[in-house]
Amino acid sequence: MSNSPFPALPHVLMGKIVSWKHSNEECNHGEKAVEFLIKKLKSKKGVLDDLANILIDPNQPISKCITIPNSSDKRIQIGYKKYFPHVLYCRLWRWADLQNHHELKAKDYCQYSFSQSKTDVCINPYHYDRIYSTVLPSIIIPRMDENFSTYQELPYDHSIVNNYYPQECDSLNSIQNVYPVQVQYDDQTLSSSYSSCIQKWCTLAYYEYFDRVGEKYNVTTPFVYVDGYTSPLNTYPNRFSLGVISNVQRRSEVKKVRSIIKDGIELSQTCFGDVYVRNLSYTSSIYVRSILYNRLNGFRDTTVCKILPNSRSNIVLNNQLLFKYDYFKQLLIQSMPLSYDYVNELSKLCSIRLSFVKGWGSDYAQSDITSTPCWLEIQLNKPLLEIDHILQQIEPQGFITSFS
After folding, report:
1. Domain range for residue 80?
2. Minimal CB count within 10 Å: which of 294, 302, 330, 393?
3. Which one Pfam family would you cite for this protein (predicted)?
4. Ranges of the chain whose pLDDT falls below 70
C-alpha cells in the first residue's frame, strides 16, 4: 500500500499536464488520456496515489513503476488515435514536444520499460530520460508508427530485400544463372517508343477527396512548381497552378484548403533520377507517402510523413528526398529472379501521394488520402517503364504492364 500523502484525485493528474498544444481539441485529447489512465489504474490499490506523488514531487528517490497492461501492438487508443503509452504520458507530464519513442531511453532500474516487451509496460514519466537530437528535422514521422520497432533503419548499401530474397540474387550475373530466362537490364535497351515518355519524367494527377479533377499534367522540366494560384495551364512549362482547375461540385472544405495552398511545393528530379520535394508554404504543412522512401528508412509502407512549413528565416530551403533511383534499381534487380508478380509489385514504389494541409492515416481524423480535400498523385514514369521492360522479357508480349 502506498504511503503517499497525496490523494489520487483527477484534478491532480490533470493539473500536471504540461503545455500539450494550443488547440482546444488537443487539450481535450490530453484530458481523455488522463481519464483513460485513471480507469486502468483505479482497481490497483494505491497506484494512483503513487502516480500523483511522483508528479507532485518528481525529485524524490527512485520511484515505483506505474504499469498498465501491454497490448498486442504495444499501443493504446485515445479517441481515434493510437499511441505508445510511455510516449504519450511522457509527453503529457514532461516533454510536450516529444516526437517518438526513439527520443526516450528507460532508466536502468525500470523493471517494466517499453523495450523489455513484458505483459505490462511502465508509464512513469520519470523512469525515462530524453535523448535530444542535435538537428531539428524538417520532416516528422507520425507517432502512429512508433510501435513498429522491428523495422530498423537500414544503411543504403544494405537493401531491405536482402532480408527476404536469396543471397544468390545479389548481382545481375547470379540472377541470370538462377533464372531460366536471360533477362537483360540495361537503360540503353529500353524501346525507342518509350523515349518520349521518359522525357515526361513524372505525371501529376490532382484530386479532391475521391475525385480526380482536371487533366493529368506531364512534367518535362527538371523541376515543377505546384501552387494554388491561377496561372493558366501550359503558360509555363514548369508550373502547375491548381487555382485554375474548376469543379462545379467543389465542397466548402476544399475551397478552404485551396485558399491556403498558395506557394505550394516544388518537385524536382536530379540527373541521377532522385526525386525531391520542397514545401514552399510559410503557413501549412504537406503530408507525403512514398513507399520507396519508407523502405529505404525502415518504415512501414503506409507511413505518412509530415513536412513542416518553410521558415522565412531560411535562406536555402531543404529538399526532402522522395525517391532514390539507385535504390529502386537495386530492388528491381533483386526481384527479377523471383517471379513476374514480384517485379510487378514494385510498380507501387513509383507512385507517391501528397496531401496539402491535411494529413491522413491512424494519426489523423482522415484514415485514407481520399478523405483529404486536396491531394496529388505523383507517377514516376521512367521507373515504371523499366519495370515494363523487365516484365515483357519474363512473360509474352501483350501481357499486363505496370501501367495497366
Report:
1. 10-132
2. 302
3. MH1
4. 1-29, 132-198, 232-235, 311-318, 395-404
